[in-house]
Design goal:
single chain; alpha/beta; 10 helices; 35% helix; 22% strand; globular
Length: 277
């Protein structure tokens, strides 16, 4: 005889917490109360589902804000329109947030996700499967650069996306290092098939760009994190001069607004930039 009462109590409780979750303060407090023994969280969003760690930067954003750079992904798709190439090349795929965001609108038929961090790769594969993308995605487990070989990869436990081949004092492991053109050749993917390159590789961008000359020469749109503080000046000059031959438009995103800029005169700070022919 208590079942109707229990169901009513559950509905009232669910309604109360649904209302509370609309407040930033409640979500922030909830995040602080998550114990360290809760390693992963799976959350259903409006048009996708993600599994993530609530103890590092991207996961905290997902838990508290319900997204991580979703507006940037949507805006880039709006700017480039329907790309000629139907393959998305993501360098530094992390746990797959952008892989999912960039495929929600049907712009791409195939994904190539390159990621070197073992902890990220595990979550990346789970998130691709959760969102029906596993069958159309090639996950390449390596770092990218201007040569083939191996490289020390340094972990950032508080921000998985900040792990990199740059020594910042964290624990490290050796991972394969590959050129982008070699990856595409092995997958039998031509540069003409690439519709967008999404690149966030924590300071390795100049070396990666040198390894994908045909993509650059054809003016395939590139969204990249521009981190001049991690590049030496010679690399900045070499990279921007090379890119300027194929890209006439450069849009700088600062998280709040966007503006056109000359690629040879980018600001001395970290921004996301979109390169367009």
């Amino acid at each position: 005889m208590f079942r109707p009462f229990d169901r009513a109590l559950k509905r009232s409780r669910d309604k109360l917490f649904a209302g509370l979750r609309a407040f930033d303060g409640f979500r922030y407090f909830s995040l602080l109360t998550i114990n360290e023994d809760i390693v992963l969280v799976t959350r259903q969003f409006a048009d996708h589902r993600l599994v993530f760690s609530p103890h590092e930067l991207v996961g905290r954003h997902l838990f508290r804000n319900g997204q991580y750079q979703r507006a940037l992904a949507d805006r880039v798709l709006e700017i480039i329109g329907q790309p000629f190439g139907k393959t998305l090349l993501e360098l530094g795929a992390n746990i797959g947030t952008h892989s999912v965001y960039l495929t929600r609108q049907g712009h791409f038929d195939r994904l190539i996700c390159v990621e070197p961090a073992p902890n990220n790769i595990h979550l990346l594969k789970q998130n691709l499967a959760l969102n029906g993308l596993a069958e159309k995605t090639s996950v390449i487990e390596c770092a990218v650069g201007d040569r083939d070989g191996t490289v020390d990869f340094y972990f950032d436990e508080k921000n998985f996306g900040a792990s990199s081949i740059t020594d910042h004092g964290g624990t490290s492991v050796q991972v394969p290092l590959r050129r982008v053109d070699g990856i595409l050749q092995d997958l039998d993917v031509s540069p003409e098939e690439i519709g967008l390159v999404w690149m966030d590789i924590e300071g390795a961008e100049p070396d990666a760009i040198r390894s994908m000359g045909e993509i650059v020469d054809q003016g395939v749109p590139i969204l990249m994190e521009y981190v001049p503080g991690r590049y030496d000046r010679a690399k900045v000059s070499e990279m921007t001069e090379y890119l300027a031959r194929s890209y006439r438009r450069c849009i700088v995103f600062d998280g709040k607004s966007e503006k056109q800029a000359d690629i040879r005169e980018l600001p001395e700070d970290t921004y996301d930039i979109l390169l367009l022919p």
